[in-house]
Design brief:
By secondary structure, the chain is mainly α. The chain has helices at about 10-15, 20-30, 45-50, 55-60, 70-80, 85-95, 110-115, 120-130, 140-145, 150-160, 175-180, 185-225, 235-255, and strands at about 5-10, 40-45, 100-105, 105-110, 135-140, 170. It starts with 5 loop residues before the first strand and ends with a helix.
Length: about 260
């Protein structure tokens, strides 16, 4: 087989040991050159030139892909114990505290390392400016984001602990932070989340098994001339792939909860 003289984006990323998102950001920020051949391809010479730059890309952007504003707000909320919203992230950008590293379908993206490096006081100032006198309280939805709990779990625990609400139905931020700091409670919630995830995976496994059984029945009907058309082979292939993945997920949760 002749040696490849030029590479497309997928093969270039593999050659450089980069993920596709790292390759894209490297190009956007000028750390990697644009393709010099038609069809979005890099010539052999340019590929060699790129080889020593992959380390610069990893150093600049890290190993984890950037995230959008909603997930960025959630990450900041859990780190700071404040009910950070998407608009707060945008204000942090406007104040030059946070960089928009790229975009996806017109939506800005942020590096996890930049979010984690943000001064909590800068985040606090932005949230306080938005909330004003409501700064020390939070709605249930905001509490769920801060805690990283399912809503049903929060409602149950809030009821069990008779958390006080103000006249607007909001909880004291201090109470939510106290829940977050309770290690025994955090472990209980983690176990509950794993049990729910296991139950969900088992339901998905059963649903896919039913699809496979239905396909086999239709196949048998066709073989026995009880049906005029055979079932779609592609359906079985998709179901088996899904079943393998779901069973692996079920096994993982069973091990974690065992």
């Amino acid at each position: 087989m002749p040696a490849q003289t030029d590479l497309g984006a997928n093969h270039l990323a593999v050659r450089l040991g980069l993920a596709r998102w790292q390759l894209r950001l490297g190009r956007e920020h000028g750390l990697l050159p644009e393709p010099d051949l038609d069809g979005e391809r890099w010539s052999a010479g340019l590929v060699e030139e790129c080889a020593h730059r992959s380390g610069q890309v990893v150093t600049r952007f890290g190993e984890e892909p950037p995230i959008g504003a909603i997930r960025a707000a959630t990450r900041l909320a859990r780190r700071t114990g404040l009910d950070v919203e998407r608009c707060d992230v945008e204000v942090l950008v406007a104040r030059d505290h946070l960089e928009v590293v790229s975009s996806f379908r017109g939506h800005p993206l942020y590096l996890l390392r930049d979010l984690d490096a943000l001064d909590p006081e800068k985040v606090r100032d932005v949230v306080a400016a938005r909330k004003g006198p409501l700064f020390d309280s939070v709605e249930a939805g905001g509490a769920v984001i801060i805690l990283g709990w399912p809503r049903k779990t929060f409602d149950r625990i809030a009821g069990e602990r008779t958390l006080a609400k103000d006249r607007f139905g909001r909880y004291a931020l201090a109470d939510i932070r106290a829940l977050a700091a309770d290690e025994e409670l955090a472990q209980e919630v983690r176990e509950e989340k794993r049990r729910r995830a296991l139950a969900k995976a088992r339901r998905a496994e059963t649903d896919i098994e039913d699809v496979v059984r239905g396909w086999l029945l239709r196949c048998t009907a066709y073989v026995d001339r009880a049906a005029e058309e055979p079932p779609d082979p592609a359906l079985l292939g998709r179901a088996i792939r899904g079943l393998r993945g779901t069973r692996a997920e079920t096994a993982k949760y069973e091990q974690e909860t065992g």
